[in-house]
Structure of Lipopolysaccharide export system permease protein:
Amino acid sequence: MSALLAIYVIIESFDKARYLGHGLTTQLLIEYLLLKAPFLISEFMPIIVLIGASVYLVELSRHHEMVAIRAAGLGINKLLTPLLTVALLAAMFSFIIGEWVTPVTNQRLDTIEQVHIQKKEDGKHGVQWLKDGQRFFRLTPLANHQFALMMLETNTQGAWLKRVDAARATYAKRQWHLMDAHVSSPSLEQGMLLEHLDEMNISSAIGPETAEPPKPRHMQVAELNRYINNLNHAGLSSSSYTYALHRKFSAPLACLLMVILAAALCLNTGSRSGKASWGIVAAISLGLTFYVVGNAGHLLANSDRMPAAYAAWLPSIAFGGLALFLLLRREGH
């Protein structure tokens, strides 16, 4: 893990150094590198476990410890049990980071990327129009998740009943909180009634996230599940969110499969360095292939060429089956 993070810091520092002095400061660059670390740990944990377990098993083979285990009549489970325990702890650690850390760090990373590197305005997505029953909302994004809001309420025939203009508005818990609001409504006697309120609330199931879809990498399991249900209820595609939800579980659990794959490739009863080296090379190659297949599954899910849930579990299914086959064959089954 340390080696992986060190390689990343070197490569990313050279890549982002060209933006220094052009919107990116040294402090922001350091912050960017530190915030990217949790994502890398969560993303590459199965490969880290695979390589770590492979090196450990090669060392056991070189010191003839496998010969002693076989001579004592013990099975391979004596080695796999502690390794699987460590892999389970790594999986739990990876899940915790992916659930509670990376959604927060990814938001900040995207802000640095968009504002200081790509020179885009933070949170400026243009004017958004939303409809909630007979009410129409026009949102103009401001800073810090605030909006300038105009709401127009009509009857079923389309005649307007009320208009609300607010200088600032925020949305939370299915309510719009308006500040410095001007309310106008038609009146038979006066033509129009005007009212000014320092603050007011408008209940609405429609929030700004429905106009600008949230990114799956910014969401936790509960948020993903809720958003997928909302999309399915509206008859919209939820492939990218379904993939992200299943990936939350499939990626950490792949750590357990990587231990089995390492045992199948690197566990030998002899001490020949050539055979051990080929085992390490095969483990690293399959680890990189696992990562590539995972990215391919993401592309297939987003393009609706493969069911999203299956695409998320495809690398684990493929490499888990390969690992079990190789291990059973090595054990003579």
